[in-house]
Amino acid sequence: MENQLAEQSTNIAQNAAQAATTAMANDTSFIKSLAIFMDEGGVFMWIILAIWTFGIAIAVERVKSLLSYDVDGAGLMNMIKKNVMVNDVQKAIQSCSNSKALLPMVLKSGLKRANQTKEQISDAVEATILEVAPKVEKRMGYLGLVANVSTLIGLLGTIYGLIESFAAVATADPASKAKLLALGISKAMNTTALGLISAISIMVVHSILTSKSEKIMGEVEEYAIKLIDLLGTKKHSGLAGTSAPMPQGAAAQKKDEAA
What we know:
Blueprint: H1 2-41, H2 43-69, H3 73-85, H4 89-97, H5 102-111, H6 118-137, H7 140-170, H8 177-240, H9 248-258
Helix pairs in contact: 1-8, 2-7, 2-8, 3-4, 3-8, 4-5, 5-6, 5-8, 6-8, 7-8
């Protein structure tokens, strides 16, 4: 029984070692194939890789920024509405001060003018929206540029590779022309493949980030309008609920008429 358990343990260890060796061999083979793929494409492959890396760096920065700019707009607006309805504007301002998102920044500018006219509140909110909008759109244009340039450089690398291939075939032995031409075309297509991979990945990220930025700005504009309407309505109802004092002359005349 003990011999069987020892034999099974040995087999398991051997299988695990074999699997690890196979995985390492596959990893080495993949890295080697990738190195050959890059080397065969020539200098244009490294140019595309540099541009792709630049696009990825911008995408990562934009993802972090947009995530920090986003906030639960409905929850924040409900909190502000509760505070405004009980005339606790300072608490509403404080709730907007604890976030680095763009929506609280816009709403805070309107809350600071809660005692002013609706037009003044609207002006403050619109000015803040114009201030924060470039933060959302920052560097987004570079992603589209990276996608286009990657594709074009890939095509340029292919054309350059084909020119070299045809030039080599022109002076080659007739028996080996077909082989050399096929090999040259295969190498030339590497730049187009890498260029398209770079362009497609950056375009997908650009589309996702654009959708996210539109969602953020849409919420900013929506809840900014709701805040202006809330403050304007609250102020108007507050004024309507207070009766203006009657002039002294009119009060005396009314008293004489009653007598």
